[in-house]
Every structure is written in C-alpha cells, then in structure tokens.
Amino acid sequence: MHVARLLLTLVLVAASLPQASAADNDYQLGPDSQYRPEVPHGTVTRHAFVAGSDSVFPGTVRDYWVYVPKQYDGSKPACLMVFQDGGGYVSTNGQWRVPVVFDNLIARGEMPVTIGVFVNPGVVPSVRGTNALPRFNRSHEYDGLGDRYARFLAEELLPEVQKSYLITPDPNGRAIGGASSGAIAAFTAAWERPDLFRRVFSTIGTYVGLRGGNDYPTLVRKSEPRPIRVFLQDGYNDQNIYGGNWWIANQDMYSALQFAGYEVEKVWGTGGHDGKHGGSILPDALRWLWKDHPAPVRAGSSDRQPIAKDVLVPGDGWQLMGQGYGFPGGLAVDATGVVHFADFENNRTYRVGTDGTVAQARGASNGAQSLAVRADGRIVATQPQARRIALQTGPDTESILAGDGVSKDIVVAHSGIAYFTDPSTRSVKSMDASGKVTVLDTGIEFPNGICLSPDQGLLYVSDMVGQFVYSFQIGLDGTLAARQPYFHLHLDDDPRGSGADGMCVDTDGRLYVATPMGVQYCDQAGRVNGILSRPERGGWISDVCLGGRNRDELYVTAGNKLWKRRVKVKGVLPFAEPLVPAPPRL
C-alpha cells in the first residue's frame, strides 16, 4: 500500500497545477481548525479494505480511517460524514484537519455527534512488483457518473464500519464531501442515492468533461429535484485544462442548482486547485450543512423548471399500484381511461380501473408482451414467443391477426393500421385490417417502443441501444418516410445504451420515454425538457402511458411493479380521432 499511496500523492500534486499566486491564495485556518485542549477529543483508527472478486471495484485495495467523537457512546445512532481522498482530510496538521474541526463543532452543538469515514480511492496493485505500475482507480471511481461508487460505499465499505459503530440509516443524518474529483464523487453519490446522503460538501469540484461531469448542470436543470443540500467552493485561479474550466463549471453548477430550487450555498474566492480556501471555510460550511438538523432536507422546488411548470403536480409523487409481476409492460389505455398491461413472464394480462383497482383480466394471454386498443375497444396483443399478433375476440378467446414473425411493441392508429417493432430483424412493420404485414424500415439498431404523434402524421420508434428516438413521416397510404434520429435522449453511464423502451404522448405533443434514468419527456422539437425520477432505486422503467378517467395519470412499469402519479398533462388515445397540437417553439 505504501507505493500505491506515494504514486497517488504524485498524481494529486500534478492535478493541482497550475497554482494560484501566493497573494491570491493566502487563506488561513481559523480558530475552529485549531486544537483546543478543553474540548472532548475523538479517536481516529486506520483500516485497510481489500475488495473481493464480486466487488463493484474488484481487485482494489485502499486505506480508510474512522473518526469517532468522544460523545459517541453506542447507545444511539450517530450521524455520518464520508470524505473522499480521506488521507488528506484525516490529518490534524494539514489543510483540512477534519477531526479537529469535528471536535470543536460537536462540543459546541454546532453539528450533531458524527462519525467520520475517510476513504482513499482504490488501487489495483501490480503483480509484477516494481516492473509494472498499479492501476489507479481514482478517476474511474470519482469522476464517472452513475451509482457505482455509491453502491461501493453502501454495500461494501460502510457495512464494515457498521460492524463496530451504530450509524443512523436516516439519509438526513448523512453527509458526504470531497475536493476536486472527490467533490464530484460526493455529489454523484447523493444525486444517485439521496436515500443514503443528503448533505454535500464540494470544493474545487470537477464538474468538467473528464468522464461526463460536464453534463451535471444540464441534468440538474432538467431532472425532478432530489432532497439534497449542497455547499460549493471554488476560486477564479482554479484549473483550466483539456477537460474544461473548473471555475466556470462550478459557477454553472451553482446556477443550475439555484434554477432548480435546491438549497445551495457557495463561497467564491481567488484560490487555485488546492485545499487552502476550502480548509479555511470548512467550519462554516459544516455549520451550514448541518443547520436545523434533525429537520429533513427538502427537495428543490422551482417554477422555472419546465418539469415543474408543465408536468408535475406539487406534492404528488409515485404511488405503488401493484407488485409481484414477472415482467410487466405493454401499457395501453382504452376510451374510458382504463389501463391494460401484460405480465409477459407469468402469461397474464391486467386492467387498472379508473378507481385505481388492479385486477387480472379475463381473456387469452398466450405470452402477450405488448397491448394496444383498437377503435372498437378490443385488445390487440403481440405474442413474440409464438411469433404472432392476436386479437381478443371474447372473454377467453382470441383470433390470430398475423403470424410467422416476431413482434414486440405495437400501436394501432385511427386508420386501423397497426405499427409494431421487431428487434430480431431491426424492423419496423405495419399490419393492415386484413392481417397483411409489411416491412417499412430496417435502419434502427434495436427498434423497441413505438408511438404516434397526436395528429398521427408521425411515428416515433425508440432505439434501445442508441441515444435517439427516431421520427418517421407517415404517408397517406400508411408507409413511412423521412426517418431521422430526432429525439435526443440523455444517457446513463452505461455501455448498454439508452435502454429506451415504451413511449406515449400528451395533447401538447410532448413525448414521454421510459428509460433507466427515468421518464424523459421531450418537446415536439426533439429536446428533453425534463426527467421524472424513477419510482424507486433499481427499477428499470420499461413502459409508460397516460391513463385514468381524465388521462392525467402517468403510469409506468418498473421492475416487477406498476406505479402511477398525477400530472398536469393529458394523454392521447392512438385509436381516436387525430388532434393537432400547437406548433413547438423552435
């Protein structure tokens, strides 16, 4: 570990260049950062963590330290604060001196009794001795988006700490912080997992284009706000290198957090890419982060966000409607607002009444994966394993409309033409009233969800492995033309692509797309205006529709569950008379 730490130190020193001048960076530590013999002093212990083969970061080793305040006696849970690049923070004579600051603030009741965990980034040691370098995981763990690092803390490292100490499970009692790449790691952990951390201390944060952190200001502006409180620090002599300008990026983050209504504080200065300024303001930052504890941290709220202004109903979140399904999806809405869906794995179909009751539907299922409603009210179902499309003809009977072909998602237009996707052949197909199937397009890598525009002049098809939802013009004869990769989706930090699946539209022409990131909704011009959060962590959203008596309830299938929430918009029925929305703002 000694060689790994030495090399990591060299990396961090190099990353701190260029430095500010001494005159611009003359920040001093205040009295709260000085040792006071009269206050109770906590203890610090050092540990090593060796990751197993099934770890989020397999093969890594790292040091970590645990600070336990004198006031902790094990009779009740302590609060928690995690620091990245922990070795620099745990020192009592460096730029940060966190144990000293904790001692002083806890003694005066200016922050709660808090256990500190100081974690170094992982290193994969060389198996060739000095003939090869270790693999340094710092940028991989810290700069990347997604929930990997948060999962490592939650599932691997913190359980080790909790074997010895009682730590509150309440995320309002948990904070996380860091500098530079450690700062974006802290923000990402809280952003992805507000069920773990809700207070973020960020200095000279790397919200730039090293591994996608430059996307954060945009995502903050568009995403449904999380319940997190954020403290930001930076100086105008910070780095300006190939990945971006740190000073500008931190100002952009602050502007985005303000725009979205977050509780955010900032301190700007003249310093460079180091901890001098951040260390000098650490006590004040901690006082602000922990103010009013144990009152919960609230979610952001702003009527400037399109998602809040146009879609979300204040105070209304996701409501669980049903669970325990095998593979639910294929949402469809009939003329009364009743929502129908299929459980492909368990070979069942269900209906959700306008009173909210979910009941298993009568009727032949036969491996239905996607459902659509015709103008006569009958249900059309794709049955990919049987390679056919069927029509429900009675309570327990069906007829085959088309066979000898794989079909996935389906929609039936007012004209009676059904459009469906076949990922196995990269095809978008149509089926007329006689059951004749026509291949219309084969140019999308993984065609998946399918949806009509409100005026039925356009057909939208999601690409599960690409970044775009494609738009086609529908000809008067029902054929497709003018394919364009039109709706530009945001991507998770995931090599599998967008994961875009089911879709629906509202009467204003907005498109709602089910993705692993959440429900992304786009304006008619193809731009994501907002991202509705997933109902719960880990639930891949597979389909979405607007149903209910007034079609103002957004339904999603995620994992093995069905959810809904009230919204301000109203859905469109594909089989009904087309309607022309107002033109978009371009």
Describe the structure in your own words.
This protein is 17% helix and 33% strand. By secondary structure, it is an alpha+beta fold. The protein is elongated. The N and C termini lie far apart (56 Å).
SSE inventory with pairings:
Blueprint: H1 2-15, E1 43-50, E2 61-68, E3 79-84, H2 86-90, H3 98-107, E4 114-119, E5 123-124, E6 135-136, H4 138-142, H5 148-162, E7 174-179, H6 181-192, E8 199-203, H7 216-222, E9 229-235, E10 240-241, E11 244-245, H8 246-259, E12 263-269, H9 276-289, H10 306-311, E13 319-323, E14 328-333, E15 339-343, E16 348-352, E17 358-360, E18 370-373, E19 379-383, E20 388-394, E21 397-403, E22 410-412, E23 418-422, E24 427-431, E25 437-441, E26 447-452, E27 458-463, E28 468-474, E29 480-488, E30 503-505, E31 511-515, E32 518-522, E33 528-532, E34 541-547, E35 553-558, E36 561-566
Parallel strand pairs: 3-4, 3-7, 7-8, 8-9, 9-12
Antiparallel strand pairs: 1-2, 2-4, 5-6, 10-11, 13-36, 14-15, 15-16, 16-17, 18-19, 19-20, 20-21, 22-23, 23-24, 24-25, 26-27, 27-28, 28-29, 30-31, 31-32, 32-33, 34-35, 35-36
Helix pairs in contact: 7-8
